[in-house]
Amino acid sequence: EQEERMRQLQEEEEQRKHVEDERLWHERERIAREQFERKRLWEESERIRIQAEEEARRAQEEAERAVADEIQRQREALSAAAEAWRNPDSTAADSDHATATNHHDHTTTIPANAYAADETPIMVSGGGGDAPQQTPRVPRPKSQKQEEAEEKRKKQEEESVRMYGTEKDPINCSFWIKTGACRFGANCGKRHEKPAVSNAVVFPGMYAGLFLSEVVAEEDADENLMYDEAEIYKHFKEFYGDVLPEFQKFGRVTQLKVCRNYAHHLKGNVYLQYDNTDSAQQVVDAFNGRFYASKQLFCELIPVQKWKPAICGFFERQKCPKGNFDCNFMHVFRNPGGEFAWADKDMPMPRSDYSRRDDRRDDRDRDRERERDRDYDRDRNRDRDRGRDRERDRDRDRERDERGRDRADRERDHDRDRDRDRDHDRDRGDGGRRDDDYRRDDRDRDRSRDGDRERGRDRDHDRDRDRGRDRDRDNDRDRERDRDY
Question: With bands split at pLDDT 50, 70 and 90, how would you rate the model's confidence at 123?
């Protein structure tokens, strides 16, 4: 009863602790959400305040400019009226001459050097009202504070443009801009601005590979060892050949990438890019809510325009230090035949009207890409086979060492028993065993030991023969893969 009571108390304590941990977790999530909302509201209010100040400043400048223009027009009108009042005869002659010489054009121009480069002429009617005149606008000097504020604003704009899309950007999420996906999702402290118009589209989790659908946690990552790399790539080629013609119905495809990351925000993502924005919008309208492989699709436009910063270069060299779970960059499959390889390096789109020489060069490039793919798959398979051979050799060596130790123990026990029997027979006198009997036992034991050595050599020979057969089988599989390519 005491043990049952203690067990109940422990269960109650664990349940109470679990409830308390869950409450603390919800409290921390609520606080984080409130902080994110406060930050967003503060950024929105700051943006509105800056926009309002900018509009007020522009309106004040326009009003001041209009007042200055009106004053200048009044001055010119007064001066023209005064001149007409002083010299009425010359003014009438000048007016008649201007009317005769400018019958089709009732405006007069002032040379470009008559006013400063940053000033614009103003059309002002003269005292007689016959010929409009152009007068230079009087520049309004800026105060030192206005110049400093304008210089500071320009520096801030240049700094924001320089930091846009980088990890130093305090507003926009760099991973959302680079890959169109973020590990933190809606809980990210930075802004995920979704573009209204773009030529890039992402299908989250569209590709369900042989191993991606089974990997849920990091400890499940070893499940893909049961699949051969050639089988995985064959499954990807079937998927690639199935979806690419469907995407090409909407326009010219310039990029198609499939992720093989284990991270939840990149697992099975399919990235698509067109040469225009209309095709991307048509794909989003056509595929949203559509079913593929018993899965409802969801797609959206993303701000990704360059692929070299988004693709993990270490993974291509099989040296990614973070692995498929922790790396936030794209671990992608190689497209069959090196298709869209120029887009991976952010190179310009190739011309569609190639000459025959360009066609031959493209064929050579595709052949090289296929050879690199074959070498890549062959190296991965060879490394895996070598690892299996080493593990099998270690197991055989371990078993052989154990058999050797057991044999040594049996021989030691046999020698001990034989010495004990010999001492016992010697103590008994003539009635015991003779030395010939012991020598006969020694010969039998030596003969048995020689037989064990012979059997060990036979086993080593069989193992070498099995290795040779495995090597021949691997070479046959490589030749078949080459023929498939």
Answer: very low
